[in-house]
């Protein structure tokens, strides 16, 4: 259904979880496409609000608080501030960015639950859940760890294995243990309230499968997979002490399930923004509701939340849920727990003024139909070869030539040639092409159409060669630059939803405060005689040094993750003491050390072994040490290995080294000075 069938549009973006910052996966999956869409609707003059806020309840926040020795409120206060500022600095144009710990939200979520309870829409059920006897509390899924039954990852959570991605039930874990006390939990009965999804299954099938075939294939397909199975009642309460208390008798010590609480945040944030008129944005059938989310939240926004709204009554349902797939980073899954991410607040500090570069790259690589990959090399290439070499280059050529020949004044348009008409014809339908894609949430294709304008402009200037024509026909150059400047002005409009910072700078350069979306495609946006401002570079080249810095950061993260995940290899089969005694391990003093020619891995050692005759040993540790760093050191070596030749050098023993988790070697030494030749026993 087209948006013009409605009087207004409510756009929501998934509430980011306030136990960490926002990374590029979040931006590509949710916030950049949502912002593009909202800016587009605003430019068209439509009535729209853009709602978001921090999701501040749930187990991961309590786990972080426990680890850091602070309160859950301390955790969410810290990250709410970081996230809110990052979004603002990046240009995500929310009408409100609030939080689920607000008083408005607590009351609305509590009242919502109470109405469902009073209307008999919830079912009460006693089930067995894991209980930590030492801590004296029931354990939420994330408080239970153990071995994954599928990939045997020893650190799987009770709800998911982050290594293989399997959804889990806590009872499936092998050797489960409490993340609080480390003890083995026991199953104990507890009472909770459930939303009977099974009672709404037929309605959901009709509403989604019959009524929303236009939804993205990934969204429609995932919904169909769920609905082809038998839906089960889902618990809407949890045995926790951090969250919104369950507001009914028997609810002591329990809080609302975070996935019941969080989506209501869209409504409560709207109420906080518009206390007197919020209901028309959520209850008026003339309002269109659109959720922007990642694919991991599809079931909650398309099945659970709509069922909650239906059960409550009076609320509109989402008209579309354009969920994206996942974005990987340098061919690896983005992971908050492994710090494998490009964090927005760090990017803004390290690359100031480059918000639009990241927006452009993430949109160009948008995971709209399948998982996609972000690499810093591609980031650099798209900036240098597209934003700089195509868009920025065309703008700079048009403005600089106008400055050179007419002092920055828009010239008159003379008689059009065939080349002029062909160029004008090529871009006349740009507005329709961009809109056609934006209306169906194909932001990647829409941005391509905007960039195509710059390609048309570059080709036009190159083919017309005004710098050559100027010598013989200045009047012809006036027409060439007039048409070029109209293309420049059109670019400022076409890129406004995608690259708002650059469009603002470009409007300043062409001396225009505002350009209306409805005028996109017109060829009279800048009138003859209009004075342009001083031209500046719209984008700047990104050098290898900048990219290498980011790659080195990721490499350090990878090393830290490998170190944290290191588990020693199993001990080999037992040997007898007599076998050990056969090895003659001695202390040797390194008198000299040098690299072996034509051998990148080998070092040649001259060792004082206490015998009075120097010993030569060749060792493959050249990648990890410089020769001068080892001279004068005491090391351990095996003295009774038979000699063998390496690169023509007879090696008389083996220097002992320890192999680290990353494959690096560390030469073994001793804590106190002893005489060369001393035996190890």
Pick out its properties:
single chain; 681 residues; alpha+beta; 5-stranded antiparallel β-sheet; 4-stranded parallel β-sheet; 21 helices; 25 strands; flat
Give the arrangement of secondary structure elements:
Layout: E1 8-13, H1 24-43, E2 48-54, H2 59-68, H3 72-90, E3 96-99, H4 103-118, E4 123-132, E5 137-138, E6 144-147, E7 156-157, E8 174-178, E9 186-195, H5 201-210, H6 217-228, E10 234-235, E11 237-238, E12 255-256, H7 258-273, H8 280-283, E13 287-292, H9 298-312, E14 327-329, E15 332-333, H10 344-350, H11 355-364, E16 372-374, H12 376-406, H13 418-427, H14 430-439, H15 443-464, H16 466-469, H17 474-494, H18 500-509, H19 544-564, H20 577-581, E17 585-595, E18 603-608, E19 615-619, H21 627-630, E20 634-638, E21 644-646, E22 649-651, E23 654-655, E24 657-659, E25 665-667
Parallel strand pairs: 1-2, 1-13, 2-3, 14-16
Antiparallel strand pairs: 4-5, 4-9, 6-7, 6-8, 9-10, 11-12, 14-15, 17-18, 17-20, 18-19, 20-23, 21-22, 24-25
Helix pairs in contact: 2-3, 4-7, 5-6, 6-9, 7-9, 11-12, 12-15, 12-17, 13-15, 14-15, 15-17, 17-18
End-to-end CA span: 83 Å
Instruction: Bin the helical content.
Output: 40-55%
- Poorly predicted residue ranges: none
Overall geometry comes to flat
Number of strands: 25
Cofactor: Zn(2+)
Catalytic activity: tRNA(Met) + L-methionine + ATP = L-methionyl-tRNA(Met) + AMP + diphosphate
Family: Belongs to the class-I aminoacyl-tRNA synthetase family. MetG type 1 subfamily.
Keywords: Aminoacyl-tRNA synthetase, ATP-binding, Cytoplasm, Ligase, Metal-binding, Nucleotide-binding, Protein biosynthesis, RNA-binding, tRNA-binding, Zinc
């Amino acid at each position: 259904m087209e948006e013009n069938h409605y009087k207004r549009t409510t756009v929501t973006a998934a509430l980011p979880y306030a136990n960490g910052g926002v990374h590029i996966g979040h931006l590509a999956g949710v916030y950049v496409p949502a912002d593009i869409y909202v800016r587009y609707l605003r430019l068209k003059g439509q009535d729209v609000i853009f709602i978001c806020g921090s999701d501040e309840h749930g187990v991961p926040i309590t786990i972080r608080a426990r680890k850091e020795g602070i309160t859950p409120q301390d955790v969410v206060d810290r990250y709410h501030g970081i996230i809110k500022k990052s979004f603002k600095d990046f240009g995500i144009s929310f009408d409100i960015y609030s939080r689920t710990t607000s008083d408005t939200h607590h009351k609305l979520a509590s009242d919502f639950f109470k109405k469902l309870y009073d209307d008999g829409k919830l079912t009460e059920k006693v089930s067995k859940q894991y209980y930590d006897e030492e801590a004296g509390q029931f354990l939420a899924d994330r408080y239970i760890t153990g071995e994954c039954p599928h990939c045997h990852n020893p650190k799987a959570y009770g709800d998911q294995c982050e290594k293989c991605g399997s959804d889990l039930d806590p009872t499936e874990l092998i050797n489960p243990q409490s993340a609080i006390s480390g003890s083995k939990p026991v199953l104990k009965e507890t009472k909770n309230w459930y939303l009977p999804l099974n009672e709404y299954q037929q309605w959901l099938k009709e509403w989604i499968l019959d009524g929303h075939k236009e939804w993205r294939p990934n969204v429609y397909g995932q919904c169909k997979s769920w609905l082809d199975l038998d839906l089960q009642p889902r618990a809407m309460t949890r045995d926790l002490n951090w969250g919104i208390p369950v507001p009914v008798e028997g609810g002591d010590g329990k809080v609302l399930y975070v996935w019941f609480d969080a989506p209501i945040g869209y409504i409560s944030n709207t109420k906080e923004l518009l206390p007197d008129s919020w209901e028309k944005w959520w209850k008026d059938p003339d309002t269109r509701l659109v959720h922007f989310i990642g694919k991991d939240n599809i079931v909650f926004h398309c099945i659970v939340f709509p069922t909650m709204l239906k059960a409550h009554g009076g609320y509109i349902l989402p008209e579309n849920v354009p969920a994206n797939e996942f974005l990987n980073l340098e061919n690896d899954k983005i992971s908050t727990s492994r710090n494998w991410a490009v964090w927005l607040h760090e990017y803004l500090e390290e690359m100031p003024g480059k918000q639009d570069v990241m927006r452009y790259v993430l949109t160009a690589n948008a995971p709209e139909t399948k998982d996609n990959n972000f690499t810093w090399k591609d980031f650099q290439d798209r900036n240098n070869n597209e934003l700089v070499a195509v868009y920025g280059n065309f703008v700079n050529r048009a403005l600089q030539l106008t400055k050179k020949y007419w002092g920055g004044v828009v010239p008159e348009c003379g008689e059009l040639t065939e080349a002029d008409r062909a160029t004008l014809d090529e871009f006349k339908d740009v507005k329709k092409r961009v809109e056609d894609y934006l209306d169906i949430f194909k932001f990647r294709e829409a941005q391509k159409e905007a960039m195509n304008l710059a390609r048309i402009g570059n080709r036009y200037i190159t083919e017309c060669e005004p710098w050559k024509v100027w010598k013989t026909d200045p009047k012809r150059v006036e027409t060439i630059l007039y048409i070029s400047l109209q293309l420049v002005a059109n670019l400022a409009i076409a890129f406004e939803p995608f690259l708002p910072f650059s469009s603002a700078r470009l409007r300043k350069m062409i001396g225009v405060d505002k350009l209306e979306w409805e005028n996109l495609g017109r060829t009279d946006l800048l009138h003859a005689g209009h004075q342009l401002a001083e031209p500046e570079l719209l984008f700047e080249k990104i050098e290898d040094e900048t990219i290498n810095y980011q790659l080195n950061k990721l490499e350090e993260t990878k090393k830290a993750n490998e170190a944290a995940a290191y588990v020693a290899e199993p001990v080999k089969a037992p040997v007898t003491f007599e076998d050990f005694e056969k090895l003659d391990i001695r202390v040797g003093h390194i008198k000299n050390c040098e690299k072996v020619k034509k051998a990148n891995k080998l070092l040649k050692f001259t060792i004082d072994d206490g015998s009075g005759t120097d010993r030569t040993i060749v060792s493959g540790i050249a990648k990890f040490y410089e020769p001068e760093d080892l001279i004068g050191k005491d090391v351990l070596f095996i003295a009774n290995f038979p000699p063998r030749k390496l690169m023509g050098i007879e090696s008389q023993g083996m220097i002992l080294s320890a192999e680290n988790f990353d494959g690096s070697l560390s030469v073994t030494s001793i804590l106190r000075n002893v005489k060369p030749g001393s035996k190890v026993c």
